[in-house]
Design brief:
alpha/beta; Rossmann fold; 24 helices; disordered N terminus
Length: 768
């Protein structure tokens, strides 16, 4: 052990490993628990760097003071205007205003947003700036304060009054903003300027310019509308005259002698013929259906035959006579006169019945032929009347179309005449949708900089920046301790122990190798399948001996065999830092790999809290480890075969966790019977593997380690943290238990890496 950690190690804590008292347990990603450091103490960071944080606060305050002195004061001004909607009912304004009914004439939320953009548009601000430049007056002196006196002593930055005025107007234009006030029709306009008078005058000029522009635009739009209506009025008058002339010419040329608005005699006669034709067609269809049914259906099943009383009476008589005939033939010969008499009556009734049926069919055919002749006659009369009505309908249709054109032209002309008169009056009515509620006033208190606000903010920002840098440094330091293992070789560098093997993820090999075994093969007898119908991972070494997973387990076995003592059977403890890291899967595969090379192997399920090996190998939970440790019988020379369950794998036996129930499983492993049991089992096997509980959660692995030849620590790629693995190694180092090495489990090669190229390029050996 001293050779592993160096001659300076005294047996307490290996160099570079954190103390166990500094660790606590946190939930892991896979549902288990993993060690993590205590939370960062924010107050401790501040107390350890008090001087540095104090210097940051003082430096921030000095920077804030310099900012206040060097920054030109800015004065804010505000004005409030109201967006007023037009009364579209006044003088029927909605009939002639092109923008009537649109959102621009209302005080809706969207129109308020539109007006705010118009108020701060580039064209509007340019017009206000130009107007103020023409009305430019000297700037009055700003209020004198302590900071203004200091600012006045600065030699650079002093400007001429005219230049100050231009800068003040330019600043007001660049900072002008407008926003709606809540759920109201009000719009608040704000700006900043080095001069309070310029800021107030700029906003008042902006509101006045917007009202003036709105009035000019509305007046211009209404005048253009009025002119357009006058031109349309002349065109409508010409169309009206042309439509009237066409109507009069048609009446004279067609010689119409009827009134299209009234129903004519020809129309009435056609409607009567149409109704009669529909009725005779329905009657003909019904009779045709009865006739066709009579032709294609046995006559005895026709409704007319079944419902005819005469036919039913004849059938009933025949039935009665047949009954009498049957009674007489039972005692008399066919030549007897009574029998012949009844036979003659039956023959007569049957002939009468046949004549009635034939007559019924003839009547159905006659009815159909008569209905067909009536339909043809009535259809001819209807077609002749249709041609007569059609000739009148063509003239009526043309007359109605020409009359409609004349009426529409008259209506359009009247509407345009009325709206043209209204537009001429509305053009003279001034209307604006903006009203000034509060005009901007001069405010001599600067809005920025504010010494009582900016100096403390500078101090707190500098202090916060310094504290943030300290916190980031502390976080980075702790992150280095909580990083997870991701690639091969990291465990050797971090833990200082050999890396016995690397087990790739099942996703690398399962699509090609771990598929259901063929019928009749040796692996079929195992009967071990995962929930998705594929072979379980615990039997990758047995069920597909040429797979990449099987090769990786045999590679790991080669590293373990190097540590085997020559004089006795080795006992190896297989454990992990936390649950869900694959120690049971590795234990099963390593045991199978050892057995397949001819070694007598015993696999003990020492994880009594979460025992799985009996279900993995398809065994019953027979007496096992807990029964041996709780029994009072001596283990020296005892026959232990009853506690060793054979498996389908030659040379491999499994000792289950047993049937005895124990409230505190860890107390079993403090028993001196553990040493006796290990001594007895060494004499019967070549290798003994123990699958134990996670070492950071339970003491089982540490207790078994004292009776073993070493511990194999399972590390799961992407899940096990470096700090957790270090803590596990520290536990065994404190107990004086040798850690043979680690196995990196569930490793997935990264895209484009050499490992990925290997797994995709090399399949099972011997396969093409």
């Amino acid at each position: 052990m001293n050779d592993r950690y160096g001659p300076e190690w005294n047996g307490s804590t290996p160099p570079g490993l954190p103390m166990a008292s500094d660790l606590r347990m946190l939930p892991a990603v896979d549902g288990g628990w993993t060690p993590a450091p205590a939370k960062i103490s924010y107050w401790r960071i501040a107390s350890r760097h008090k001087l540095l944080l104090s210097l940051c606060l003082v430096g921030g305050a000095l920077l804030g003071t310099m900012y206040v002195i060097l920054r030109t004061p800015q004065y804010s001004a505000s004005s409030t205007v109201e967006l007023v909607g037009f009364n579209q009912s006044f003088m029927n304004m909605s009939q002639v205003d092109p923008q009537a009914g649109t959102d621009i004439t209302t005080a809706s939320a969207s129109n308020i947003q539109t007006q705010t953009r118009i108020l701060t548009s580039r064209s509007m601000l340019s017009r206000v700036t130009e107007r103020m430049s023409l009305e430019m007056t000297p700037i009055s002196s700003t209020p004198t304060t302590f900071f203004t006196k200091l600012r006045a002593r600065i030699p650079f930055g002093q400007k001429e009054p005219l230049e100050q005025m231009k800068e003040a107007v330019s600043t007001a234009a660049s900072t002008a903003s407008a926003r709606g006030v809540g759920a109201t029709r009000l719009i608040e306009i704000r700006c900043q300027s080095p001069s309070p008078e310029v800021a107030a005058n700029f906003l008042n000029t902006l509101a006045a310019e917007h009202i003036s522009q709105s009035l000019a635009m509305r007046s211009s739009t209404t005048q253009r509308t009025s002119q357009w209506m006058d031109s349309q009025l002349e065109e409508a008058k010409a169309r009206l005259q042309a439509a009237g002339e066409k109507l009069r010419d048609f009446v004279r040329q067609s010689g119409m002698d009827f009134f299209p608005e009234q129903s004519t005699l020809a129309d009435s006669k056609m409607k009567v013929l149409q109704a009669d034709l529909a009725g005779i067609q329905a009657d003909r269809i019904a009779k045709q259906a009865r006739w066709e049914m009579a032709k294609n259906t046995p006559i005895d099943s026709l409704p007319d035959v079944l419902l005819d009383p005469n036919l039913q009476s004849l059938k009933s008589g025949i039935v009665v006579l047949r009954k009498e005939m049957a009674q007489l033939t039972a005692t008399l010969t066919p030549e007897h006169y009574k029998v012949q008499k009844i036979q003659a009556q039956i023959t007569e009734l049957e002939q009468t019945l046949d004549k009635e049926k034939t007559g019924l069919l003839k009547r159905l055919e006659n009815d159909y032929q008569e209905a067909l002749r009536r339909e043809k006659l009535l259809s001819g009369a209807y077609n002749a009347q249709t041609h007569a009505v059609g000739a009148q309908a063509d003239k009526a249709s043309q007359w109605a179309m020409l009359k409609r054109d004349a009426e529409m032209a008259q209506q359009v002309y009247n509407n345009l005449l009325q709206q043209s008169n209204q537009a001429a009056l509305i053009a003279l009515v001034p209307a604006s949708n903006i009203r000034v509620v509060d005009a901007a006033v001069v405010d001599n208190i600067p809005s920025t900089p504010v010494p009582v606000r900016d100096i403390p903010i500078g101090a707190f920002l500098a202090g916060g920046l310094g504290y943030g840098l300290l916190w980031l440094r502390e976080t980075a330091r702790r992150k280095r301790l909580t990083q997870i293992f991701e690639s091969p070789g990291h465990t050797r560098t971090i833990l200082g122990v050999p890396e016995l093997g690397v087990i790739p993820s099942a996703a690398v090999d399962r699509p090609k190798k771990l598929r259901a075994p063929k019928r009749g093969s040796g692996t079929q007898s195992m009967g071990i399948l995962a929930g998705n119908g594929q072979p379980a991972l615990e039997f990758a070494t047995w069920q597909d001996k040429s797979s990449i997973l099987a090769e990786s387990f045999r590679q790991t076995l080669t590293s373990i065999l190097r540590t085997k003592p020559k004089d006795r059977c080795p006992v190896y403890v297989i454990t992990s830092g936390g649950p869900g890291e694959g120690k049971t899967t590795l234990s099963a595969n390593l045991a199978i790999a050892m057995a397949t090379i001819g070694q007598r192997v015993l696999l003990i399920d020492a994880d009594v809290r979460r025992a799985r090996l009996h279900s993995v190998f398809g065994l019953d939970n027979c007496p096992g480890l807990s029964d041996l440790l709780t029994s009072a019988d001596s283990l020296e020379g005892a026959d232990l075969n009853g506690y060793l369950c054979p498996t389908k794998v030659d040379n491999l036996r499994v000792m289950t966790h047993g049937l005895a129930e124990v409230d505190t499983p860890a107390t079993l492993f403090f028993s001196p019977r553990v040493k006796e049991l290990v001594t007895s089992l060494r004499e019967q096997f070549d290798f003994i593997l123990l699958d134990t509980a996670p070492v950071l959660l339970f003491p089982d692995a540490r207790l078994w380690g004292k009776h073993s030849d070493g511990v194999v620590l399972v590390v799961r790629a992407g899940a096990t943290t470096r700090e957790g693995a270090l803590a596990a190694c520290q536990r065994f180092a404190e107990d004086g238990v040798a850690v043979l090495g680690t196995i990196l489990n569930d490793w997935t090669p990264k895209e484009g890496s050499a490992g990925q190229y290997y797994y995709h390029s090399y399949g099972a050996y011997g396969k093409k």
